[in-house]
Amino acid sequence: MASFGVSNCLWQQPLKTIPIFLLIAIRAGLNALLFSLLILSYKVFDIELLDILFTSYNFNINTITTAVGICCINYFGLYFFNKSIKHGSTGISIPLLCLGTLIGIAIGIFLYNEEMTVVKVVIALIFILGVWFMEKLNNNVWKLKFSKGVGFGLLANLFWSSGFIFPILIQSLGVLFFSLILEIVVCCMSITGYLIQHRKNINPMQYPIKQNFKWIGGLVVFGSIGVLFSQFSTLFLPIHVLGMLGIIQPIVSVIIACILIKEKLTLPQYIGIFLMLLGMWVSINMSSN
């Protein structure tokens, strides 16, 4: 989670000069190459250290097709997250990911007939107040009118909520193979989006990729660590524990954004971030009890 927290902050700088689709494609392509090398090393050199990453893999066309489909849906979470950063700020976009908890509550009530309790209503109000403060107390929030940054952040949450199916797929495919499928899907969809959006001039070398190498390298290193270990943790940790660990991600991201990118937020925005974290913490404690 800490790796994701660092990785999330590294998108903003290269996004200033590199198209979203191209940047995601580069990062996902390099991650896929890294995971492929790990799989090849395991097969050729029989590295025992990697045994745990191949636990319980069982290939069949239905599982792989399902994995590809879910990864396609989940991809738009990453896309809209980057759109959120491009039109807003890292310090705001990342805490908005806490809203995934609110989406989970809504899914439980409307799809699984869970009880609507006073605590759940309070949690929902905390999150809504958090968004209001993040929007600098703009009353348009109550009319469901958001800034582009916040709007794209909400869409990112919606599509990323498809990740609740990941643990089932990981148990069948194993951590490394599922992570490889995820990155290949992300890379292919990004390349397709880039070719469609820039069909009149598709030359990627016109963008300062080399100049942003340290940022891209950081995205690959911290992103791959985050992907592997987050998928691995789903095999052994209860959902509510994963949720608790998830609080680390926005906290690390906000700290890094302030120090590394030197973002300056207003007092209402800091209050909004606190309310997001508070809502997430209350909901996690509710589920664990």
Can you tell me about this structure?
This protein is mainly α. It has helices at 2-9, 12-15, 20-45, 61-87, 90-93, 99-110, 118-134, 148-160, 166-173, 175-197, 213-233, 239-246, 248-259, 267-288. The mean pLDDT is 77.
Secondary-structure topology with pairs:
Elements lengths: L1 H8 L2 H4 L4 H26 L15 H27 L2 H4 L5 H12 L7 H17 L13 H13 L5 H8 L1 H23 L15 H21 L5 H8 L1 H12 L7 H22 L1
Helix pairs in contact: 1-11, 1-13, 3-10, 3-11, 4-8, 4-9, 4-10, 7-14, 9-10, 12-14
Concise overview:
This protein has 289 residues and is mainly alpha-helical. The protein has helices at 2-9, 12-15, 20-45, 61-87, 90-93, 99-110, 118-134, 148-160, 166-173, 175-197, 213-233, 239-246, 248-259, 267-288. It is globular, with a radius of gyration of 19 Å.
What is the approximate shape? globular
Largest sheet: none
**What is the β-strand count?**
0
The computed structural class is mainly alpha
Strand content: under 5%
Which keywords apply here?
single chain, 71% helix
